[in-house]
Design brief:
mainly beta, 6-stranded antiparallel β-barrel, about 5% helix, about 50% strand
Length: about 400
């Protein structure tokens, strides 16, 4: 008798049209993973009767509470849909600003893109966004290059090439386009989405299917080591599990083929300034999603309940100044933007995790015969200073994916 092999298993998902509208048939997506574990545990309650035979009288079984966990290596275009569902807003294509006249000039270690008319603010460009000059007769050092926005005014962007390469000063390039690359999702102030998914674990060596319906993305943890692969861990909760002998999501799209992201190819901004002493970062986005309360006469919950979105994490940095300690001691807010790319080429695919308002909550040091490293824990909050026609988004977190 064959034994199911993990290398043969396919984990696929497809968005449902709503609660109880289980997805089937074509469409959907096979997800890349290092592991995926879906299960359907039951509430249990052991009898605590005292009887003369001095033995347990059994255990009762209650509501089923399906849940899943997918661990993987972070790559562009792979997890954007699921991350957007957690943030409760669909990924949207970045703004493409066309017909501009742009002057490129050096500004210390950075560069400015100055337009002759109009407004970058009203056009929706935000600090932390990564865009490219995609049209106009620019020098090759300026064109089709990932440029991270460090500051925004109506007429000028302060930018830095993501790979640290040089740009070229030139004046009044006409018919220019500056486009925010890929798509972006953020936690909105209104109009939140409420997405449900069907996940299927298909075991072709056994011809067996496990289908988990009405699943929501409950939490995501991102880990960005200074050297090594960036990782992602997604937790889901749902309502039902169905076992079967036929594949339900029959023709899901194959796994994406984008390269795995590495933090060595990227940049970290603290308070709008690129820093070079950070040695790693972790971010957890918690949707506080759980199974709703049980009701009499049903062995499945009727829905899932969602709470507020909470974002927290930490980053480690070499102790070479008191800048971060001063922010902590002042109990002030700052910003944190984590950008990671697949390689060091000018137009490499990338992802940006942007938290426009955080508070540091600790600065724990280590020790040893090495460089001293401090760990800075943080908690994010909604950026009340952001919004339309302003330099930052009014959100707790946004995610940009160049390949979404």
């Amino acid at each position: 008798m064959p034994v199911a092999q993990g290398i043969n298993k396919k984990t696929a998902y497809k968005k449902q049209t709503g609660l109880g509208a289980n997805a089937t048939g074509g469409g959907g997506q096979i997800v890349r993973r290092t592991s995926s574990v879906f299960q359907a545990p039951l509430d249990t309650f052991e009898s605590n009767e005292i009887v003369s035979h001095q033995q347990s009288t059994g255990v009762g079984l209650g509501v089923i509470k399906p849940a899943g966990k997918i661990d993987g290596l972070l790559s562009p275009g792979t997890y954007g849909t699921l991350l957007a569902s957690l943030l409760r807003k669909d990924m949207a294509t970045g703004a493409a600003l066309t017909g501009l006249t742009i002057t490129v000039a050096a500004s210390g270690q950075n560069w400015t893109l100055t337009r002759s008319a109009g407004s970058f603010l009203t056009d929706g460009v935000k600090v932390g966004d990564v865009g490219r000059l995609t049209a106009g007769a620019f020098n090759a050092l300026n064109s089709q290059k990932n440029l991270q926005v460090l500051a925004v005014t109506a007429l000028a962007l302060t930018v830095k090439p993501l790979n640290g390469s040089a740009m070229f000063a030139e004046s009044a390039v006409t018919a220019a386009t500056f486009a925010i690359t890929g798509k972006k999702a953020l936690v909105p102030a209104t109009g939140h989405t409420n997405d449900y998914y069907t996940f299927e674990e298909w075991y072709p060596d056994l011809g067996r299917s496990e289908v988990y319906n009405d699943q929501q993305i409950a939490q995501v943890a991102l880990s960005l080591p200074a050297t090594g692969n960036a990782t992602i861990s997604l937790d889901t909760v749902g309502r039902t599990r169905t076992l079967g002998a036929a594949q339900v999501l029959t023709t899901p799209a194959a796994e994406t083929l984008t390269d795995v992201l590495t933090a060595v190819n990227g940049a970290i901004l603290v308070n709008g300034v690129q820093v070079a002493n950070v040695t790693g970062a972790q971010v957890t986005i918690n949707g506080n999603t759980a199974h709703s309360d049980a009701v009499v006469g049903a062995n499945v919950v009727d829905d899932l309940q969602r709470g507020r979105i909470a974002v927290s994490g930490s980053f480690t940095a070499k102790f070479d100044s008191v800048t971060l300690q001063t922010i902590l001691d002042g109990r002030s807010t700052t910003s944190l933007v984590l950008t990671i790319a697949e390689d060091n080429t000018a137009n490499a695919d990338f992802m940006v995790v942007n938290m426009p308002m955080i508070k540091l909550t600790s600065d724990t040091p280590d020790d040893g015969e090495k460089a001293i490293i401090r760990t800075y824990a943080f908690t994010a909050q909604i950026n009340s200073a952001g919004g339309a026609a302003l330099a930052t988004d009014q959100t707790i977190i946004s995610i940009q994916d160049s390949a979404a």
